[in-house]
Specification:
The protein is built from 13 helices and 15 strands. The chain has 365 residues and is an alpha+beta fold. The radius of gyration is 29 Å and the shape is globular. The two termini are 48 Å apart. Helix 11 crosses helix 12.
Length: 365
Amino acid sequence: MQAAAMDPAEEPPSILWGLDPLFSAFVRLYVRDILQMAESTQVPGIYFYNLHPVYKVDVLGTVVYKRERDDFFCYGVDDGTAVINCLCWKSDELKTEDPPVADSSRGAPGGFNLLKELKELRRTQQEHHRLEIGELVRVRGKVKTSRHQREITASIYYKVNDPVMSEQISWMMELPQLYREFYDKRLQLEPDAVGNSLHRAKNMIKDFLEKKSVSRFRPHDVQDVLLPLISAQPHSSPADQEVAGPSAGPSAGPSAGQQLRQLLKEALQVLQDDGFVYRRVKSQDEVFLVTTRDKDLLMAVQDVIREDSKREKYAEKGCHVLHILSAVRQRFSLNVSRAALELVLSSLECSSDIISPSDQHYIAV
């Protein structure tokens, strides 16, 4: 596989990587994504998934091939999405010869033989680290690219005994949730690092709506909430006006009112993208609804799940989130986004109105 390089224009500065909690963690990723991650142009050995800096990963898969050398094992691990080489260095116990077994008559009273027990313990350790094709292995280690091949240099690896596949099922259910909540959301480094006003504006509006228990509003209802952000911005000094010249007029940039309206527009758009608010009908009368407080939307989603989960097609597994989204858009509003729907589903699930028998599937209680 030819290693991809990160576009220098998109790559975040290395000084900010530590702000991402994934940077110091063993990130559980699909092997397919590990193979496709782009490598940093600033620091070799650092890779990016959706702008998250990654250099340590955690994988669970089946051994599909093996190769042994004096100092290491090389296992091909398949997690169902792709296969990756895992370089597993042998410990000193695996390299040394087994000690000779002493005569049992020299053991302690009761038949206990220390050397024999040590040999048995070493044999158990070797069995735990010597894997055969078809066995399940978990590997944690650093990602590296060697001879244009992406591989993992293991710091920890061990055979997983999973006769009823409980470990694999748990793993397969946990990964999609991690992707949704963390990996597929780009980390916004600017807000906390340099005080991004848009991020602050979004939080100020969100806090105001939650504190006042607002269910519907118009932009001018929350406009004054952002006034502190506009008044806190530096104004042009007389020296700046002299540099701008008389032709620039009293104000070379947008007025405070224009800045306020633009900031409000952008903040409301971010809240819509997050699904926190939505507009049921797009008209000149801009009415925004707080998603989880809109009783009509909650009832519409609940009715869709209640009615369709009775059908034979969805009776066992439940209605998929995309099916629910399509039905809600047809019966209620075309402007309901998936992000808004997921907030509604989470709210209904917390109130025990619906349950999720499997990932992204829901049935009515």
